[in-house]
Amino acid sequence: MASPVDILSKVIEQTAKVIEEEVDAKLSKLNEMDDDELERLKERRLEALKKAQKQKQEWLSKGHGEYREISSEKDFFGEVKESKNVVCHFYRNSTFRCKIMDKHLGILAKKHVETKFIKLNAEKAPFLTERLRIKVIPTLALVLDGKTKDYVVGFTDLGNTDEFSTEILEWRLGCAGVINYSGNLMEPPTGTQKSGSKITKVEKKTIRGRDYDSDSDDD
């Protein structure tokens, strides 16, 4: 009877062999390509890189890549019309937890250039706070294609703790589809939950109140 060590060694050997065969097959395929095919492959990859860079520059020109404050409700309408994905933090200077939210949003704005991150003083936005039924500060309004599709209200979805991690907030925004999230949306990231806090899977849900349409400022 083979020992556990022998079995493990055999499994490792077989795995290595499979990987080696896959690498050999890819190298063989590349070797079989003629110069024209290789050139076309390089051109496609270069074109994809240029397209991605152009898209990034377009986002940056619209204020993506940084977390910034807007001064009025009128500015909000323009910002959400201009970008597909927007996270807007409704805050008050007197609310300490808004400073905590600011810290995490500043980090995520740099990481997720595909999304615009802005903040608006709720006291300067009475129409919006009433229209979106914002009762708790801080609240994040998550806007996709000009419509508010979801909210992060206080820290409830973040473990009900002031010490939630940036990764937890990133996961929550990923659940809403407002950022490109590369992790597992079915469960919050492991190793980031603080003792005593509780975070559960976020289900797709209906918004409280009505959707905000970016064209409604003409009402």
TrEMBL record:
<dbReference type="GO" id="GO:0005813">
    <property type="term" value="C:centrosome"/>
</dbReference>
<dbReference type="Pfam" id="PF00085">
    <property type="entry name" value="Thioredoxin"/>
</dbReference>
<feature type="domain" description="Thioredoxin">
    <location>
        <begin position="72"/>
        <end position="156"/>
    </location>
</feature>
<dbReference type="InterPro" id="IPR013766">
    <property type="entry name" value="Thioredoxin_domain"/>
</dbReference>
<dbReference type="InterPro" id="IPR036249">
    <property type="entry name" value="Thioredoxin-like_sf"/>
</dbReference>
<keyword id="KW-0539">Nucleus</keyword>
<keyword id="KW-0597">Phosphoprotein</keyword>
<keyword id="KW-0963">Cytoplasm</keyword>
<keyword id="KW-0175">Coiled coil</keyword>
<comment type="function">
    <text>Significantly diminishes the chaperonin TCP1 complex ATPase activity, thus negatively impacts protein folding, including that of actin or tubulin.</text>
</comment>
<dbReference type="GO" id="GO:0005737">
    <property type="term" value="C:cytoplasm"/>
</dbReference>
<feature type="coiled-coil region">
    <location>
        <begin position="31"/>
        <end position="58"/>
    </location>
</feature>
<comment type="subunit">
    <text>Forms ternary complexes with the chaperonin TCP1 complex, spanning the cylindrical chaperonin cavity and contacting at least 2 subunits.</text>
</comment>
<dbReference type="GO" id="GO:0030496">
    <property type="term" value="C:midbody"/>
</dbReference>
<dbReference type="GO" id="GO:0005634">
    <property type="term" value="C:nucleus"/>
</dbReference>
<protein>
    <recommendedName>
        <fullName>Thioredoxin domain-containing protein 9</fullName>
    </recommendedName>
</protein>
<keyword id="KW-0206">Cytoskeleton</keyword>
